[in-house]
Description:
The chain is of the alpha/beta class. Among the domains are: 13-188, Alpha-Beta Plaits (2-Layer Sandwich), CATH 3.30.70.1230; 195-230; 240-375, 3-Layer(aba) Sandwich (Rossmann fold). The chain is built from 29 helices and 14 strands. Strand 4 (99-112) and strand 5 (118-121) form a beta hairpin. Helix 7 (256-271) packs across helix 10, helix 20 packs parallel to helix 22 (566-578) and helix 27 (649-662) runs parallel beside helix 29. It starts with 12 loop residues before the first strand and ends in a 13-residue tail after the last helix. The relative contact order is 0.07.
Amino acid sequence: MTTPSEQSSDVKFEIGHVLFIDIVGYSKLLINEQSEQIQSLKEIVRGTEQFRLAKAEGKLLRLPTGDGGALVFRTTPEAPALCALEIAKALKNHPEIHVRMGIHSGPVNEITDLNEQANIAGAGINIAQRVMNCGDAGHILLSKHVAEDLEHYGHWQPLLHDLGQCEVKHGVRLGVVNLYNDGVGNPQLPKKFQVLKKRRTRIRWASFVIAFLLLAAVVTAFLVILRKPMRWTSNAPEKSIAVLPFENRSEDKANTYFADGIQDEILTRLSKIADLKVISRTSTQHYKSAPENLPEIARQLGVANIVEGSVQKSGDAIRVNVQLINAATDAHLWAESFDRQLTDIFRIESEIANTIAETLQAKLTGSEKVAVSARPTENPEAYQLYLKGRFFWNKRTAVDLRKSIEYFNQAIEQDPNYALAYAALAQAWLLLPAYDGGAPKDCFPHAETAAKKALALDDNSSDAHAALGMVKQIYDFDLPGAIAEFERAIQLNPNDAMAHHWLSNHSLAAAGQTEREIAEMKRALELDPLSLIINANLGQAYINANRYDDAIAQLRKTIEMEGSFYFAHQMLGEALDLKGQIPEAITEYEKAIALNDDPIPKALLGHLYGRIGRKDEARKILEELRQTREQRYIEAYGLAIVYLGLGDRNETFNWLEQGYRDRDGYYMAVIRIDPVLASLHGDPRFEALAEKIVPATQFGAKTISK
């Protein structure tokens, strides 16, 4: 699986911060008026400081669109927002020009179009335009992704006004934020949202009438029950906990990484206690702002207890406030403030984790006590560099993963014996190919080296064992070795959702152990219930088990959580395709393609077109994939399945063999269970290739695992 990201330095593909500009009502203007307004708008745009700075640095791309244009900044996420504000301010002197603007950060690709002219393509451009289309004249709209990047800076927060979701092309829903202040921007609710608001109001009134009638029918019984003492109850285990994001109270907002890091480290220490159920950071990060309804949050996360906290850092002095709350009763089970020096940070984290475990009456083994109280490094500078690396690692884009690698390497330079930094470095290299950050052959050897170094320093590093498991599975094609590493990681950290996820999605799927694959994925989901990729991969596990109705239901649930998550649309398309619901499958593939330039959804659509006789369309997709592969690394698997749809088995096997040579493990490792390749089973060429990846003696065997 790949996702939008920056490519390695030898290709023209990267994350761009896009400002899309459009003159409203342009088509209704006279020709001379169109020319005058376009010229005036060009002069205004060129006169902005952000335009001049980016152009001078050679970090600006421009795409004219007839009634406006797109600016792609390769500087910072703030650049398009600052430029939009400058443009809006200048337009006050041109009341005849009505402009709307949309901003998004995403992948862009410099290409040559059919007229041999330089052009720009990519999901970054497409989504910025769709965000803009949600607004009216004067609006400066941001995608939710950009708004989340900007809100880390205090000066942007008052200007950001969340509008909710807007339905755009192909029925996709995008989170949109309105940018305005007292003098610039349009504070009015866009017309699209006004229509949605009226629709919701009608639904609410209808619901109110029904609810009133029902209430009248049960009011007597309710009054009887009301006399009895009642309390909120939960089915969650008593020893279950979610550590919510810690508030950064430092004057320097750049210290957000430090507050995030403290929360993450406390969560990690708790997760190593088998007697506790600890929710993954991926899910808890959904509650960044100060939560008001703790019982509802606890219900959504499936826990009985919540940890809240704040961090204030000034130089080497730190203050950490933390409180443990029972969500059912809202009772504070424990609270404490720590005023210490930076050198005491591990002691603080250890005290907090141990006190929480003691308060919840969790039983710790000897090794767990050691893990909870560990001091990973004696070097405060190395620790801060590690936390900065984790901050960018959690963002999950190629650009940010590259930054995390830089910080982890700097941490290792400060402390060459820092096992945790080596383990994190391994995981960063592992994820790069999945986010279009490089080819597996260029990344996985670095991951293997770092993971083995981490284990040489600390054989109890669950992160390093999980990373080595991934290397063995999707690079070395060593199925038994991978399962052993994942199981060791889970033994060391029972609450590691990622280890459960990787074991399920990669090793157990490859082994054909579909029942255990589903069980492990459900365990991962229990520990990380709001993870989009785990929710989608549970749907994929159902597909592997031929449970297509369950897969469709699970994938629709994932899309309800986040309509712009392309991978869920891709997998839903595959499930519908396998059920024979061809028009619906095509629609879902098209949605995935519109949301992301990952080549696999396009390849799946090409495979389907080939099968149903739409050969020309399949060949067009095939040519697009071949051209893309000339520009940047993409999986050979994608070309193989389009050739398969076209009925060309020789080329199919040529590209599958290329995928094996490329170590395209994300797709090649599960070759025996992949339903797209099912028609190849029994072909001697397929059986020979599959034997090199997953020997028949290992497929479906229970002896290679516990």
